[in-house]
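If you are new to this repository, start here. Below is one unmodified record pulled from the training split, so you can see the exact layout before writing a loader.
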Amino acid sequence: MDHGSGIKNPSEVKLGGFKAFLEQAADSPKPSWLIQDLIPTSGWVMVAGPPGSGKTWFALSVIKQAASLGRQVYFFEREGNLWALGNRMGNLMAMPVDSPIEVFFRTGFRLDERKFSEAITLEMKQHFNPVVVFDPLNAYWIGDENLAKDANRLIGWLDALLRIPSALVITLHHTAKGGFDEGRSAVYAVRGSSALPAAADYVLNVSKSPSEHGTMAMLVDPAKARDLEEPGKRKIVIALGSGQVSITSEWADRTRDMRKEVLRAIGDGCTSGNQVVLKLGARRTFVQKLISELVIEGLVVEQGGELVLPPES
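And here is the target side for that same chain:
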């Protein structure tokens, strides 16, 4: 489901042949990011995790980033204590007091009441690329989250927000008891009907990570995120007091380790990419990409069609 198209009604959909489609696709903007290779600039992002996993901290880091770029943010928060939320945002996350953020704490707002849903939609339309965060989503509608028909109604209400040009909607959710089954996709760790994660553009599962003094750390697993350049979990560390956020990628660690394995394989006598792939049992495209990078860096040399390590100087 593409929520970034801005399509308001079926009459705006242009049908055509495959050539026309390819031309339109080539002229369309490439995926862009609010947080590089993790949070898109627009669309629907579901953030799921058990209580205490760091979902709200993660959402606050996204809110701060969006506000720092001048994007209007609407933050609906139903859990916790008002003083604690203010302390988190103003002191621990160091959000400037003039940030373009409106906070709605424990209000009577409900997406399934027309007067409320129309009010927030009209308000968001006053701004280009607005951001709205619901924490948690199930606190803002009355329905059975386990029933697909109720979940589909909720999706319809969110769609009204997603039709606003370049809008970003972030919804926080609790995971099902016990997380998710081994044989089931991590996309469906979210509590309730599978219709919700199926409709979302991104599903990010959050789990707690050991934190050093003065920091808050969490692991973010992109369970559904088709436009990411790098798969794998990200470790998010927030420095409390400054609000500075650092992100390290599990994929970056894997790439670093695999580069060492490729060099070791070539040093052991593998003279082609195919031989390296067979020795390491890794994905061919991944290994070939690493070999190309190593050749460019001068750490591997191609001689007579064979891969060798350069002589030690």
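Two things worth knowing about this chain: The first strand starts at residue 33 and ends at 35. Residues 261 and 280 are 8 Å apart (CA to CA).
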